[in-house]
Amino acid sequence: MSIKANNPAYKSWIEVPSDSDFPIQNIPFGIIATDSNKPRVATRIGDTIIDLKVIFNFGYFTDLQFTVEDFDSETLNNMMRLGKEGTRSLRGRISELFEESNDDLKKNSNHLHKALLDINDVQMLIPISIGDYTDFYSSEQHAFNVGCLFRDPNNALLPNWKHIPVGYHGRASSILASGVDFHRPKGQKKPPTAEMPVFGESNLLDFELETAFFTYKGKPLGDHITTAEADEYIFGMALLNDWSARDIQGWEYVPLGPFLGKNFASHISCWIVTLDALEPFRVSGPIQDPKVLPYLEYTGDKHIDIKIEVVIQPENGEENVVAKSNYRHMYWNMNQQLAHHTINGCNMRLGDCYGSGTISGPEEGQYGSMLEISWKGTKPFKMNDGTQRKFINDNDTVVMRGFAEKDGVRIGFGEVKAKVLPTK
Ligand code: MN
Protein backbone atom coordinates (compact mmCIF):
# COMPACT_ATOMS: atom_id res chain seq x y z
CA MET A 1 0.00 0.00 0.00
CA SER A 2 1.41 3.37 -0.96
CA ILE A 3 -0.01 6.37 0.88
CA LYS A 4 1.02 9.49 -0.98
CA ALA A 5 1.05 11.83 2.03
CA ASN A 6 3.65 9.61 3.73
CA ASN A 7 6.36 10.36 1.11
CA PRO A 8 9.51 10.91 3.21
CA ALA A 9 10.92 13.25 0.54
CA TYR A 10 8.16 15.84 1.08
CA LYS A 11 9.03 19.13 2.72
CA SER A 12 6.56 21.83 3.66
CA TRP A 13 6.79 25.54 2.93
CA ILE A 14 5.80 25.93 6.60
CA GLU A 15 8.82 25.87 8.88
CA VAL A 16 9.16 22.67 10.92
CA PRO A 17 11.63 22.53 13.86
CA SER A 18 14.06 19.60 13.50
CA ASP A 19 12.74 17.72 16.56
CA SER A 20 9.06 18.35 15.76
CA ASP A 21 6.48 15.55 16.02
CA PHE A 22 4.51 17.25 13.25
CA PRO A 23 6.30 17.28 9.88
CA ILE A 24 4.21 17.37 6.68
CA GLN A 25 4.10 13.53 6.76
CA ASN A 26 2.00 13.57 9.96
CA ILE A 27 -1.13 15.69 9.26
CA PRO A 28 -2.99 14.73 12.47
CA PHE A 29 -6.50 15.95 13.26
CA GLY A 30 -7.71 17.84 16.32
CA ILE A 31 -10.23 20.37 17.60
CA ILE A 32 -9.14 23.93 18.33
CA ALA A 33 -10.82 26.81 20.11
CA THR A 34 -9.68 30.43 19.96
CA ASP A 35 -10.84 33.63 21.68
CA SER A 36 -12.72 34.74 18.59
CA ASN A 37 -14.00 31.49 17.05
CA LYS A 38 -16.14 28.51 17.93
CA PRO A 39 -14.39 25.11 18.07
CA ARG A 40 -13.49 23.62 14.69
CA VAL A 41 -11.37 20.95 13.03
CA ALA A 42 -7.69 21.68 12.52
CA THR A 43 -4.39 20.07 11.62
CA ARG A 44 -0.84 21.06 12.43
CA ILE A 45 2.51 21.36 10.65
CA GLY A 46 5.44 22.24 12.91
CA ASP A 47 4.10 24.81 15.38
CA THR A 48 1.56 26.19 12.91
CA ILE A 49 -2.11 25.34 13.35
CA ILE A 50 -4.18 25.06 10.17
CA ASP A 51 -7.88 25.88 10.47
CA LEU A 52 -9.57 23.39 8.14
CA LYS A 53 -12.95 25.13 8.22
CA VAL A 54 -11.31 28.22 6.75
CA ILE A 55 -9.41 26.14 4.18
CA PHE A 56 -12.70 24.46 3.20
CA ASN A 57 -14.53 27.78 2.90
CA PHE A 58 -11.84 29.17 0.59
CA GLY A 59 -12.55 26.25 -1.76
CA TYR A 60 -9.40 24.17 -1.43
CA PHE A 61 -11.32 20.92 -0.76
CA THR A 62 -13.88 21.19 -3.59
CA ASP A 63 -12.67 17.93 -5.16
CA LEU A 64 -13.38 16.03 -1.91
CA GLN A 65 -16.63 14.64 -0.46
CA PHE A 66 -16.69 16.79 2.69
CA THR A 67 -19.19 19.51 3.66
CA VAL A 68 -18.57 22.54 5.84
CA GLU A 69 -20.33 20.82 8.78
CA ASP A 70 -17.52 18.26 8.82
CA PHE A 71 -15.06 21.01 9.82
CA ASP A 72 -17.39 23.47 11.57
CA SER A 73 -17.75 21.09 14.49
CA GLU A 74 -16.58 20.66 18.05
CA THR A 75 -15.64 17.00 17.39
CA LEU A 76 -13.97 15.00 14.62
CA ASN A 77 -16.96 12.63 14.50
CA ASN A 78 -18.56 14.36 11.49
CA MET A 79 -15.48 14.22 9.26
CA MET A 80 -14.87 10.60 10.33
CA ARG A 81 -18.19 9.55 8.74
CA LEU A 82 -16.50 9.16 5.33
CA GLY A 83 -14.28 6.41 6.72
CA LYS A 84 -10.71 5.65 5.82
CA GLU A 85 -11.08 6.67 2.15
CA GLY A 86 -12.39 10.06 3.27
CA THR A 87 -9.69 10.89 5.77
CA ARG A 88 -7.01 9.49 3.45
CA SER A 89 -8.14 11.79 0.63
CA LEU A 90 -8.26 14.75 3.04
CA ARG A 91 -4.79 14.08 4.38
CA GLY A 92 -3.54 13.70 0.80
CA ARG A 93 -5.06 17.04 -0.24
CA ILE A 94 -3.63 18.88 2.80
CA SER A 95 -0.22 17.37 2.07
CA GLU A 96 -0.36 18.68 -1.54
CA LEU A 97 -1.37 22.18 -0.44
CA PHE A 98 1.49 22.55 2.02
CA GLU A 99 4.21 20.77 0.03
CA GLU A 100 6.98 23.18 -0.93
CA SER A 101 6.50 23.02 -4.71
CA ASN A 102 2.81 24.04 -4.42
CA ASP A 103 1.99 27.73 -4.04
CA ASP A 104 -1.81 27.66 -4.59
CA LEU A 105 -2.41 28.63 -0.97
CA LYS A 106 1.03 30.00 -0.17
CA LYS A 107 0.71 32.86 -2.68
CA ASN A 108 -2.62 34.04 -1.27
CA SER A 109 -1.72 36.12 1.76
CA ASN A 110 -5.37 36.92 2.61
CA HIS A 111 -6.17 33.18 2.86
CA LEU A 112 -2.99 32.46 4.80
CA HIS A 113 -3.73 35.21 7.27
CA LYS A 114 -7.10 33.62 8.09
CA ALA A 115 -6.18 29.93 7.93
CA LEU A 116 -2.87 29.75 9.79
CA LEU A 117 -2.65 30.25 13.54
CA ASP A 118 0.18 30.19 16.03
CA ILE A 119 0.19 27.23 18.41
CA ASN A 120 0.14 29.64 21.36
CA ASP A 121 -3.11 31.24 20.24
CA VAL A 122 -5.26 28.11 20.31
CA GLN A 123 -6.65 25.86 22.97
CA MET A 124 -6.89 22.15 22.17
CA LEU A 125 -10.13 20.40 23.09
CA ILE A 126 -10.95 16.71 23.42
CA PRO A 127 -11.01 15.73 19.72
CA ILE A 128 -13.66 13.01 19.60
CA SER A 129 -17.07 12.54 21.17
CA ILE A 130 -16.40 9.09 22.60
CA GLY A 131 -19.33 6.70 22.87
CA ASP A 132 -17.83 3.58 24.37
CA TYR A 133 -14.45 3.03 25.98
CA THR A 134 -12.80 -0.37 26.27
CA ASP A 135 -9.46 -0.93 27.99
CA PHE A 136 -7.32 -3.97 27.18
CA TYR A 137 -4.54 -5.64 29.17
CA SER A 138 -2.26 -6.62 26.31
CA SER A 139 1.36 -6.12 27.39
CA GLU A 140 2.86 -9.41 28.57
CA GLN A 141 5.46 -7.77 30.80
CA HIS A 142 2.80 -5.67 32.53
CA ALA A 143 0.51 -8.67 33.09
CA PHE A 144 3.51 -10.68 34.31
CA ASN A 145 4.64 -7.93 36.72
CA VAL A 146 1.15 -7.50 38.16
CA GLY A 147 0.84 -11.29 38.49
CA CYS A 148 4.13 -11.39 40.41
CA LEU A 149 3.08 -8.55 42.70
CA PHE A 150 -0.36 -9.90 43.55
CA ARG A 151 0.01 -13.67 43.09
CA ASP A 152 3.20 -15.58 42.50
CA PRO A 153 5.97 -15.43 39.84
CA ASN A 154 5.42 -19.08 38.87
CA ASN A 155 1.79 -18.47 37.96
CA ALA A 156 2.01 -14.80 37.08
CA LEU A 157 -0.05 -15.02 33.88
CA LEU A 158 -3.57 -16.36 34.32
CA PRO A 159 -4.45 -19.38 32.13
CA ASN A 160 -6.54 -17.32 29.67
CA TRP A 161 -3.98 -14.57 29.08
CA LYS A 162 -2.22 -15.98 25.99
CA HIS A 163 -5.53 -17.06 24.43
CA ILE A 164 -7.66 -13.93 24.86
CA PRO A 165 -6.88 -10.22 24.54
CA VAL A 166 -8.29 -9.56 28.03
CA GLY A 167 -10.25 -6.32 28.40
CA TYR A 168 -13.05 -4.58 30.27
CA HIS A 169 -15.63 -1.93 29.48
CA GLY A 170 -14.55 1.41 30.93
CA ARG A 171 -16.30 4.75 31.17
CA ALA A 172 -16.22 7.35 28.39
CA SER A 173 -17.66 10.33 30.30
CA SER A 174 -14.48 10.93 32.30
CA ILE A 175 -12.01 10.79 29.38
CA LEU A 176 -10.37 14.22 29.40
CA ALA A 177 -8.21 16.28 27.08
CA SER A 178 -4.55 16.74 27.89
CA GLY A 179 -4.09 19.77 30.12
CA VAL A 180 -7.34 19.37 32.09
CA ASP A 181 -6.27 18.98 35.72
CA PHE A 182 -8.29 16.80 38.08
CA HIS A 183 -8.75 16.07 41.78
CA ARG A 184 -7.37 13.04 43.57
CA PRO A 185 -10.25 10.56 43.87
CA LYS A 186 -11.60 9.33 47.16
CA GLY A 187 -13.44 6.15 47.94
CA GLN A 188 -13.70 2.96 49.90
CA LYS A 189 -10.56 0.90 50.48
CA LYS A 190 -9.35 -1.74 52.86
CA PRO A 191 -5.75 -1.39 54.06
CA PRO A 192 -4.07 -4.85 54.26
CA THR A 193 -3.89 -4.81 58.06
CA ALA A 194 -7.36 -3.35 58.69
CA GLU A 195 -10.34 -5.42 59.83
CA MET A 196 -12.90 -3.22 58.11
CA PRO A 197 -12.91 -1.00 55.02
CA VAL A 198 -12.37 2.74 55.43
CA PHE A 199 -13.37 5.78 53.39
CA GLY A 200 -10.89 8.44 52.32
CA GLU A 201 -8.69 9.86 49.60
CA SER A 202 -6.72 7.44 47.47
CA ASN A 203 -3.15 7.13 48.72
CA LEU A 204 -2.05 4.94 45.82
CA LEU A 205 -2.83 7.09 42.78
CA ASP A 206 -1.04 5.75 39.70
CA PHE A 207 -0.69 6.46 35.99
CA GLU A 208 -0.90 3.84 33.25
CA LEU A 209 1.16 4.44 30.12
CA GLU A 210 -1.06 3.46 27.21
CA THR A 211 -2.03 4.29 23.67
CA ALA A 212 -5.61 4.53 22.45
CA PHE A 213 -7.15 3.90 19.07
CA PHE A 214 -10.45 5.22 17.69
CA THR A 215 -12.81 3.56 15.23
CA TYR A 216 -14.82 4.67 12.24
CA LYS A 217 -18.35 3.31 11.90
CA GLY A 218 -18.24 -0.45 12.49
CA LYS A 219 -20.46 -3.28 11.31
CA PRO A 220 -24.05 -3.93 12.45
CA LEU A 221 -24.75 -5.82 15.67
CA GLY A 222 -24.22 -9.53 15.07
CA ASP A 223 -21.39 -9.16 12.54
CA HIS A 224 -17.70 -9.24 13.34
CA ILE A 225 -14.54 -7.53 12.08
CA THR A 226 -11.67 -9.84 11.11
CA THR A 227 -8.00 -9.18 11.84
CA ALA A 228 -7.55 -8.60 8.08
CA GLU A 229 -10.35 -6.01 8.00
CA ALA A 230 -9.43 -4.21 11.22
CA ASP A 231 -7.12 -1.56 9.69
CA GLU A 232 -10.01 -0.21 7.58
CA TYR A 233 -12.01 0.45 10.75
CA ILE A 234 -9.26 2.24 12.69
CA PHE A 235 -9.07 6.02 12.25
CA GLY A 236 -6.02 6.79 14.36
CA MET A 237 -4.25 6.78 17.69
CA ALA A 238 -3.48 9.01 20.68
CA LEU A 239 -1.50 8.69 23.90
CA LEU A 240 -3.59 7.64 26.89
CA ASN A 241 -2.93 8.02 30.60
CA ASP A 242 -5.37 5.61 32.20
CA TRP A 243 -5.21 6.81 35.81
CA SER A 244 -5.76 4.18 38.49
CA ALA A 245 -6.41 4.39 42.23
CA ARG A 246 -4.72 1.14 43.30
CA ASP A 247 -6.17 1.06 46.84
CA ILE A 248 -9.77 1.57 45.66
CA GLN A 249 -9.18 -0.91 42.81
CA GLY A 250 -7.65 -3.54 45.10
CA TRP A 251 -10.70 -3.68 47.38
CA GLU A 252 -13.44 -3.51 44.75
CA TYR A 253 -12.24 -5.53 41.77
CA VAL A 254 -13.33 -9.06 42.75
CA PRO A 255 -15.38 -10.49 41.11
CA LEU A 256 -16.45 -8.03 38.38
CA GLY A 257 -13.24 -6.11 37.71
CA PRO A 258 -12.33 -2.42 37.51
CA PHE A 259 -14.90 0.18 38.59
CA LEU A 260 -14.37 3.31 40.75
CA GLY A 261 -10.62 2.76 40.93
CA LYS A 262 -10.48 3.49 37.20
CA ASN A 263 -13.39 5.67 36.10
CA PHE A 264 -12.59 9.00 37.79
CA ALA A 265 -10.30 10.23 34.96
CA SER A 266 -8.33 9.12 31.90
CA HIS A 267 -6.47 11.62 29.71
CA ILE A 268 -5.77 11.51 25.98
CA SER A 269 -3.40 13.57 23.85
CA CYS A 270 -5.26 16.04 21.65
CA TRP A 271 -3.96 15.27 18.13
CA ILE A 272 -5.27 12.07 16.58
CA VAL A 273 -2.44 10.65 14.47
CA THR A 274 -3.98 8.63 11.65
CA LEU A 275 -3.17 4.95 11.30
CA ASP A 276 -2.18 5.87 7.73
CA ALA A 277 0.58 8.17 9.05
CA LEU A 278 1.86 5.36 11.29
CA GLU A 279 2.01 2.69 8.53
CA PRO A 280 5.73 3.25 7.78
CA PHE A 281 6.58 2.32 11.37
CA ARG A 282 5.03 -1.15 11.42
CA VAL A 283 7.12 -3.92 12.99
CA SER A 284 6.59 -7.61 13.64
CA GLY A 285 5.13 -8.73 16.96
CA PRO A 286 6.19 -11.54 19.29
CA ILE A 287 5.73 -15.17 18.27
CA GLN A 288 2.49 -16.16 19.94
CA ASP A 289 2.95 -19.49 21.66
CA PRO A 290 0.62 -21.28 22.33
CA LYS A 291 -0.95 -20.80 18.91
CA VAL A 292 -4.02 -18.59 19.00
CA LEU A 293 -7.47 -19.64 17.77
CA PRO A 294 -8.02 -19.04 14.01
CA TYR A 295 -10.13 -15.88 14.49
CA LEU A 296 -7.13 -14.25 16.23
CA GLU A 297 -4.53 -15.21 13.61
CA TYR A 298 -3.20 -12.36 11.49
CA THR A 299 -0.74 -11.80 8.67
CA GLY A 300 1.79 -9.03 8.10
CA ASP A 301 3.46 -6.64 10.52
CA LYS A 302 0.71 -5.29 12.76
CA HIS A 303 2.70 -3.90 15.67
CA ILE A 304 4.05 -0.32 15.60
CA ASP A 305 7.36 1.09 16.83
CA ILE A 306 6.34 4.07 18.98
CA LYS A 307 8.72 5.28 21.67
CA ILE A 308 6.87 6.62 24.72
CA GLU A 309 8.26 8.21 27.88
CA VAL A 310 6.64 9.18 31.16
CA VAL A 311 7.72 12.17 33.21
CA ILE A 312 6.75 13.29 36.72
CA GLN A 313 7.10 17.00 37.37
CA PRO A 314 6.54 18.17 40.95
CA GLU A 315 5.06 21.65 41.53
CA ASN A 316 7.69 24.22 40.44
CA GLY A 317 10.19 21.37 40.00
CA GLU A 318 12.16 19.68 37.25
CA GLU A 319 10.93 16.87 35.06
CA ASN A 320 11.93 13.33 36.11
CA VAL A 321 11.80 10.63 33.44
CA VAL A 322 10.39 7.58 35.24
CA ALA A 323 9.79 5.25 32.27
CA LYS A 324 10.79 4.78 28.63
CA SER A 325 8.70 2.15 26.91
CA ASN A 326 7.61 1.29 23.38
CA TYR A 327 4.28 0.31 21.86
CA ARG A 328 6.08 -2.49 19.97
CA HIS A 329 6.22 -4.43 23.28
CA MET A 330 2.53 -5.37 22.99
CA TYR A 331 1.67 -9.07 22.87
CA TRP A 332 -1.75 -8.50 21.25
CA ASN A 333 -2.05 -5.94 18.42
CA MET A 334 -5.01 -3.68 17.58
CA ASN A 335 -6.23 -6.01 14.81
CA GLN A 336 -6.48 -8.89 17.27
CA GLN A 337 -8.14 -6.67 19.89
CA LEU A 338 -10.79 -5.51 17.44
CA ALA A 339 -11.35 -9.03 16.05
CA HIS A 340 -11.77 -10.38 19.57
CA HIS A 341 -14.04 -7.52 20.68
CA THR A 342 -16.46 -8.15 17.78
CA ILE A 343 -16.29 -11.96 17.50
CA ASN A 344 -19.46 -12.29 19.61
CA GLY A 345 -21.32 -9.81 17.40
CA CYS A 346 -20.63 -6.76 19.58
CA ASN A 347 -20.97 -3.64 17.39
CA MET A 348 -18.27 -0.95 17.23
CA ARG A 349 -19.39 2.62 16.64
CA LEU A 350 -17.84 5.73 15.16
CA GLY A 351 -15.75 7.46 17.84
CA ASP A 352 -15.35 4.51 20.19
CA CYS A 353 -12.05 4.43 22.12
CA TYR A 354 -9.86 1.41 22.92
CA GLY A 355 -6.95 1.51 25.37
CA SER A 356 -3.95 -0.74 24.72
CA GLY A 357 -3.48 -1.60 28.36
CA THR A 358 -0.38 -0.51 30.29
CA ILE A 359 2.67 -0.85 28.05
CA SER A 360 5.65 -2.24 29.95
CA GLY A 361 8.89 -3.19 28.24
CA PRO A 362 10.97 -6.21 29.31
CA GLU A 363 13.52 -4.27 31.38
CA GLU A 364 13.43 -2.14 34.50
CA GLY A 365 13.13 1.48 33.42
CA GLN A 366 10.55 0.41 30.82
CA TYR A 367 7.62 -0.22 33.16
CA GLY A 368 4.44 1.73 32.45
CA SER A 369 3.01 2.30 35.96
CA MET A 370 4.27 3.34 39.39
CA LEU A 371 2.90 0.04 40.72
CA GLU A 372 5.62 -1.71 38.74
CA ILE A 373 8.30 1.02 38.91
CA SER A 374 8.15 1.12 42.74
CA TRP A 375 7.36 -2.63 42.87
CA LYS A 376 4.21 -2.05 44.93
CA GLY A 377 5.91 0.64 47.00
CA THR A 378 8.91 -1.47 48.04
CA LYS A 379 11.39 0.32 45.74
CA PRO A 380 10.56 4.06 45.77
CA PHE A 381 11.67 6.07 42.74
CA LYS A 382 14.34 8.65 43.62
CA MET A 383 13.47 12.06 42.21
CA ASN A 384 16.19 14.59 41.34
CA ASP A 385 14.99 16.98 44.07
CA GLY A 386 15.83 14.34 46.72
CA THR A 387 12.23 13.26 47.34
CA GLN A 388 10.85 9.81 46.56
CA ARG A 389 7.76 8.54 44.82
CA LYS A 390 5.95 5.27 45.39
CA PHE A 391 2.86 6.65 43.68
CA ILE A 392 1.75 10.13 42.51
CA ASN A 393 1.64 13.05 44.95
CA ASP A 394 -0.74 16.01 44.99
CA ASN A 395 0.36 18.76 42.60
CA ASP A 396 2.55 16.38 40.59
CA THR A 397 2.10 16.72 36.84
CA VAL A 398 2.41 13.52 34.82
CA VAL A 399 3.40 13.93 31.17
CA MET A 400 3.62 11.24 28.47
CA ARG A 401 5.28 11.91 25.12
CA GLY A 402 5.54 9.57 22.17
CA PHE A 403 6.78 9.39 18.60
CA ALA A 404 7.79 6.99 15.85
CA GLU A 405 10.94 7.67 13.82
CA LYS A 406 12.46 6.10 10.71
CA ASP A 407 14.42 7.24 7.65
CA GLY A 408 14.66 10.79 8.99
CA VAL A 409 10.88 11.17 9.45
CA ARG A 410 9.50 11.58 12.97
CA ILE A 411 5.76 11.23 13.49
CA GLY A 412 4.64 12.06 17.02
CA PHE A 413 1.67 12.71 19.25
CA GLY A 414 2.93 15.70 21.21
CA GLU A 415 2.02 15.01 24.81
CA VAL A 416 -0.69 14.05 27.26
CA LYS A 417 -0.33 15.99 30.46
CA ALA A 418 -2.35 16.45 33.64
CA LYS A 419 -1.80 17.69 37.18
CA VAL A 420 -3.20 15.96 40.23
CA LEU A 421 -4.98 18.48 42.46
CA PRO A 422 -5.73 17.70 46.12
CA THR A 423 -8.96 15.84 46.91
CA LYS A 424 -12.12 17.93 46.61
MN1 MN B 1 -5.56 0.63 31.80
Structural account:
It is a single chain. This protein is of the alpha+beta class. Strands 6, 7, 8, 13, 14, 16, 17 and 22 form an 8-stranded mixed β-sheet that branches. Strands 4-3-2-1-5 form a 5-stranded antiparallel β-sheet. A 5-stranded mixed β-sheet has the order 9-26-25-20-21, with no helix packed on it. It contains 11 helices and 26 strands. It has helices at 52-57, 68-71, 77-80, 83-98, 109-115, 140-150, 230-233, 246-252, 275-278, 334-342, 370-373; strands spanning 30-33, 40-45, 48-51, 116-118, 123-125, 133-136, 167-169, 175-177, 182-183, 186-189, 198-201, 205-206, 209-215, 234-241, 244-245, 266-268, 273-274, 282-283, 303-304, 307-313, 320-326, 353-355, 381-382, 388-389, 397-406, 409-421. The mean pLDDT is 97. The protein is globular and about 70 Å long. 18% of the residues lie in helices and 26% in strands. It has 2 domains: 4-125, Roll (SH3 type barrels), CATH 2.30.30; 133-421, Fumarylacetoacetate hydrolase, domain 2, CATH 3.90.850.10. It binds manganese (II) ion. Residues 135, 208, 210, 242, 355, 357-358 line the site of manganese (II) ion. The site of manganese (II) ion (MN) has 7 residues, from loops.
